[in-house]
Design a protein that fits this description.
Elements: H1 3-8, H2 10-16, E1 19-25, H3 29-43, E2 47-49, E3 58-63, H4 70-90, E4 96-100, H5 101-107, H6 110-114, E5 120-122, H7 130-138, E6 143-145, H8 153-156, H9 162-167, E7 171-175, E8 177-178, H10 189-192, E9 197-198, H11 201-213, E10 218-222, E11 230-232, E12 238-240, H12 241-248, E13 256-260, H13 269-277, E14 284-286, H14 294-299, H15 306-319, E15 324-331, H16 338-351, E16 355-360, H17 378-401, E17 407-415, E18 421-425, E19 431-435, E20 444-452, E21 457-461
Helix pairs in contact: 12-13, 16-17
The structure holds 5'-deoxyadenosine and iron/sulfur cluster (SF4).
5'-deoxyadenosine binds near residues 67, 186, 187, 328 and 364.
């Protein structure tokens, strides 16, 4: 096309100019992964990611529905975006606004009713249709896509280009499993993410190889129930997550593996053996238990007791003594008494966590817990949460301090906040602050810890 052509056809020129997409991510690591895959799909369609919402032609809020007022937060953000969209329109720019993720799935067209600024609503199972949906929205239609798609979205989502992988750094997430069939009575996931699906071995291995070729050194396998992953392995044999980890550990360049989040019921023998036999599998395990009271565990439909959990950890620690435990707790589930809470405190003391997350129970519409009797008063929840968090903070600090004087490998991830510093990651997920002369991003260096902050370590090479 010559210059004259462009000048005489301004509409076409506008059509081919690069559009910018701004994605805001709420919630869990799977949403972080999903946001990247949505960006990849849109980049393949000519969009460029931007960090400046004011410049965006397409704004996507990738939302979370797991706890308190998640939906309300999205609606108030949409209020701000409405003003922005109006300002952009006044300057002659069109801004398409979309809501994706778990609130999109849970609320559906309700979002269009409550927030007319929204042009498209897309649930987590249909991200591969996003480019087509955006085109429809651009043509002036309101679009809602919240089916559980029949086709495999992972097969249809384009892989990121190598340069994009490189820009994203030396650690990456990789979703291997999605959804959940366990139906814990507090949890919205089976309704927002649908029933459990496992991605096939070949698809996962190909994606991991691609990431490794793009310079990724550490992969965290993701799933709402990641250790329920299963698939057909070599020779048609049924594989679990343990076998998959053994396979991924063979990929050249991939030095570190992690996985999250696990359910205690799905820690099988091979997975425990992987912790024993695979140096690449990092000694850190996020294994939520939610409560230390058997009565509450039963009401939560967890299908295990506090003792099952403690014995499981003992088995894992027997084969991997340096493993650090992490967990999730829900405080104030309906019917929780002082004695139940004390049982949780006792379990935490018995386990000794390196890190843990605790939340006040928040009734999720449509879950069995929301309809249970004897909801716990907010004031009581606050008190119990404070008590538990004080204990967990104490354990975190004890764990961090216990690293001082230790030698360990650190994976260098990024420049430090202060000039001359570089930040690595310990096997236990702690930031390790080093002098930048120690190595380059992507290097794994042997260091000795000199001192520690609350969660970060200061170290020098050995
Ligand atoms: N209320 C409070 N916390 C919840 N979680 C899940 N559902 C709820 C809820 N309704 C917590 C659990 C889970 C983590 C991701 O969020 O601890 O492991
Ligand atoms: Fe939130 Fe759960 Fe959805 Fe992740 S899967 S975004 S934690 S509701």
């Amino acid at each position: 096309m010559d210059l004259n052509d462009t000048l005489t056809r301004p509409d076409d020129a506008a059509e081919t100019k690069t559009r910018k997409v701004f994605v805001k991510t709420y919630g869990c690591q799977m949403n972080v992964y999903d946001s990247q895959r949505m960006s990849d799909a849109l980049m393949a369609d000519g969009y460029q990611p931007t960090d400046a919402i004011e410049d965006a032609d397409l704004v996507l809020l990738n939302t979370c529905h797991i706890r308190e007022r998640a939906a309300e937060k999205v609606y108030s953000e949409l209020g701000r975006i409405r003003d922005l969209k109006r300002d952009r329109a006044a300057q002659g720019h069109e801004m398409v606004v979309g809501v994706t993720g778990c609130v999109a799935q849970a609320e559906g067209d309700e979002i269009l009713r409550r927030a007319p600024v929204v042009d498209l609503v897309v649930g987590p199972q249909t991200y591969h249709r996003l480019p087509a949906v955006v085109k429809k929205a651009r043509a002036g239609h309101k679009v809602v896509e919240t089916d559980y798609a029949l086709e495999d979205k992972f097969e249809h989502l384009p892989q990121p280009q190598k340069t994009v992988v490189r820009n994203r750094g030396v650690t990456a997430f990789l979703t291997v499993q999605e959804g959940c069939d366990k139906f814990c009575t507090f949890c919205v996931v089976p309704y927002t993410r649908g029933s459990e699906i496992s991605r096939p071995v070949a698809q996962i291995v190909a994606e991991a190889e691609r990431l490794a070729e793009g310079g990724v050194r550490e992969i965290t396998l993701l799933g709402q129930n990641v250790n329920a992953w299963h698939g057909e392995g070599v020779g048609g044999r049924e594989w679990g997550l343990g076998e998959l980890l053994f396979r991924l550990a063979e990929i050249p360049g991939l030095e570190r593996l992690r996985y999250t989040t696990s359910h205690p019921r799905d820690m099988d023998d091979t997975l425990i053996a992987a912790h024993r036999d695979l140096p690449a599998l990092m000694p850190y395990l996020h294994l939520p238990v939610q409560s230390g009271s058997d009565r509450i565990l039963k009401a939560m439909n967890r299908k295990h007791t506090a003792d099952d959990y403690l014995r499981l950890i003992e088995r894992i620690r027997n084969v991997r003594p340096d493993i650090a435990m992490s967990g999730d707790f829900i405080i104030g589930f309906p019917g929780e008494s002082d004695a139940d809470h004390e049982a949780t405190m006792k379990l935490v003391r018995d386990v000794g966590y390196a890190q843990a997350f605790s939340f006040k129970y928040s009734p999720r519409p449509g879950t069995p817990g929301a309809d249970m009797k004897f909801h716990v008063e907010e004031r009581v929840k606050d008190e119990r949460l404070q008590e538990l968090q004080a204990l967990l903070t104490n354990q975190l600090e004890t764990f961090t301090q216990s690293r001082v004087g230790m030698e360990m490998d650190a994976l260098i991830e990024k420049p430090g906040r202060q000039a001359g510093q570089i930040v690595g990651r310990s096997p236990w997920l702690q930031p390790v602050i080093l002098d930048e002369s120690v190595g380059r991003i992507g290097d794994i260096v042997r260091v000795k810890v000199l001192s520690a902050g609350r969660n970060s370590l200061f170290a020098e090479p050995v």
